[in-house]
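Exam review. A common question shows you a sequence with its structure tokens and asks you to describe the fold in words. Practice with the pair below. Do the first one on your own.
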Amino acid sequence: MKALRSDTRHRQSSSTQEREGVTTVEFAIITMVFLTVVFGMVEMSLVIFRYHIVSHAARQGARLAIVRGELTTQQRRWDPQVLGSTHTALLSANDPISNALRPSTGGVIPEQTTVTIAWPDTTNKLGSPVQVEVATTFRPFVTFLFSAEWNLNARSTMLIEH
């Protein structure tokens, strides 16, 4: 009778150990999947946030450009005859357009962000269009989920008002 009881205890403890091992493996798999989903959501949130900043900067640049037309004083004017019909600069550059847009772009890296302003009619007369494009790159920190680098750009076109 004594031998029967010890055999039953041995079977129960080995079954419990096997179950604990299975639970550990299940926990590891579920944790990996859960953390992948969480990091993916954080990464996508950062992409959406950066794109929002880029699109806001393009819109803000166009708003600034439409009030710096031919009727503006010479010091404040963004003139296509001086800057060229298309002007491209890094956001970190020390030029009037980059300096005006830099406060609107918190959250992007200025050295990786370009600002392009174009006057399709090559003039800054009233009613002429002006187009501002802001472009930057985004490098995800979870590279096994997403590609190595994303290009984010936004363009805004408005008519010169002043």
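Now try the second one, then compare your answer with the model answer below.
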Amino acid sequence: MDSSGGTGPHRPLRPGETRVQRADRNFAEILGELRVLQTGVQILFGFLLILAVQPRFGETSTFGRITYVVTLLLCCLATALLMGPVAYHRALFAKGLKPEIVRVSNRFARAGMLVLLLAIDGAVLLVMDFVFGLPVALAPTAFVLLVFAVAWYVLPTRRLATLDRELRELRERREREHGDAGHDS
């Protein structure tokens, strides 16, 4: 999906699909993705809420308590961002603004994923610090951050760059074949 939520001018419509149908399809896809992310954030949020009332939580260091509070707040922010598309849609429902809703929902989802990644990494740091101490906790925390960053951002970004290059080359080849170098297809 492009930065506009899949509704940009360089994203072709599917055969027989109108712009409104594309916006509807893209919004349905975003909602499906958000359902998966929301489950993860709910599990993490529940874990964090229960953690503070556990008897051994009192043994947590000052660093651990700060990490806990920051992680809990990140989890709350991720929840708000990942639920944002539904609230935005509800507020603008039936106003003919579906392409805008898709663009804004895409931004909510991207921001929510970034904050969720930080919350997950914060939870890993919190648990690893409690179990092993901070020096040992840093390695697995960095590893988790790296895995999420690669899976959620690096791989898709590289694929988009490759796809853009392939599409550009295909357009250039078609233009050369048709002798239409100055006309967009």
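Model answer, second protein: Residues 19-133 form one domain. The chain has a mean pLDDT of 89. Full marks require stating both points clearly.
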